[in-house]
Structure formats: C-alpha cells, structure tokens
Amino acid sequence: ALLVSLAFYGWAAWRLAQGYEAWLRERRRQVAPARRLRWLVAALALLVMARAGYTLFELTVRPLDYFDLFAFYVMLGALGTWLGIESWRATLVPAPPLQPAEDPAPRWLAAIEAEALWCDPALTADGLARKLGTNRAYLSQALAPHGGFAGVIGGARARAVARWIEAGRGEDLLSLALEAGFGSKASFNRAFQDALGTSPSAYRASHRPAKAMLRE
User: Which long-range contacts (CB under 8 A, 24 or more apart) does 53-62 make?
Assistant: First the structure.
C-alpha cells in the first residue's frame, strides 16, 4: 500500500508539474518553479525505487527491522525537509508584475462577449475569474485599464441592451435591463450612459422603427 500510494502521488504530482510549466510558458513567465517541482517528483521516484528494493529484499531474504530501514527513513525525512524549505522559499518570492507583452485582457474581454458571461445577474469578480481560468488579483489588474470588473460587465450588458433595441424588441427598458443582468434601473442607466454616451430612452427614441415614426 505504501508503494502504491507513493507511486500514485508521484504520477499525479508529475502531471500537475507539467501542467504548471505549460501555464507558466503560456504567460511568458519563468518556468523555474515548475522545474523545481519536477526535481522533487524525481526524488520521490528514487524514494519509491529504494522502498521497492527493501520490500523485495524482505520478501526474498529475511524480514527487516527498524534499523535495517533507517537509511530509507533518512531519505524520507530529507525529502520532506526539502519540500518544506522549497515551499517556504516560494512564499517569500512575490508574484511578478503583469507585463504588457502578456496582457490577457483582450482575450478575456473577447471571452466575456463571445460566451455572454455578463448575462449572469449573480456574477461576481471571483466567479468571473473562475470562468476565465485565473484568479481575482490578476483579473482585477488586467481589467483595471478597461474600467474594472464593474465597468467591463456593465458595458457588456449595456451593449447587449442596445443590440436588442436596434433589433426592435418592444419590451420596456427595465425588463431588458433585468434580462441583461442589471440589478437596478439606476445601475442600468449609469452603465448605458458610460458605454454609449446617451441614455437608454434617448437611444431607443433614435432607433424607433420607421413604421412607428410614420404613425406618429
């Protein structure tokens, strides 16, 4: 059971380290942290091999006592100490700042529009970060030049309402605002004014169907 658990842990850790390295490369960051993890997994593999050797000896020659396994326990302790030191060192290294060359904002803004992530009225910054595969800190940093989370989502919702008005939907403006995810008329009016430079009622008035204008 010990060998199987160690082997499975090593395999899972190796896959996670590879995924972490790919994530770092995609964002043009240093891959040293991922490589340190892979060295740790390699050391774990050596530990598993050593334990397998002890087990084979015990099955074919004679039972082993604590003193026979002392070297294995030393290796296990050294591996745990190394892991602890590396984890401690990692907490002291600040996250590198987001560089312009790796700015993910255009990709995230396109995903918000293409996947209509704005339509969820309960959407939060944390929830949007999870949908985009990042964390709130990076999301806030990337969206700050574009109006922040509230500005981006409010603008996307306002533009959706504008498209519905242009398409000739006849519902009242508040119903369209609630469908787009706004929580109140005030927030809708404010976001619409910021995004399109006019009020929702004025925008609807300027996009009335030709037949309605003739009737008037």
Answer: 55/3
The sign of the torsion formed by the CA atoms of 131, 134, 137, 142 equals negative
First to last CA, the chain: 83
Give helix 70-92 / helix 32-60 axis angle, nearest 10°.
170
Phi and psi at residue 113, to the nearest 5°: -75, -50
Query: How far, CA to CA in Å, does 57 sit from each of 1, 64, 69, 194?
Result: 17, 8, 11, 75
Interval 124-176: pLDDT, tens: 999 999 998 888 888 998 999 999 999 999 999 999 999 999 998 889 999 99
| Number of neighbouring beta carbons within 10 Å of residue 19 | 11
pTM as predicted: 0.53
Q: Measured between alpha carbons, how far is 209 from 3 in angstroms, rounded to an integer?
A: 74
Tokens matching residue 216: 């008037």
Listed residue (159, 155, 146, 143) closest to 191, CA to CA: 155
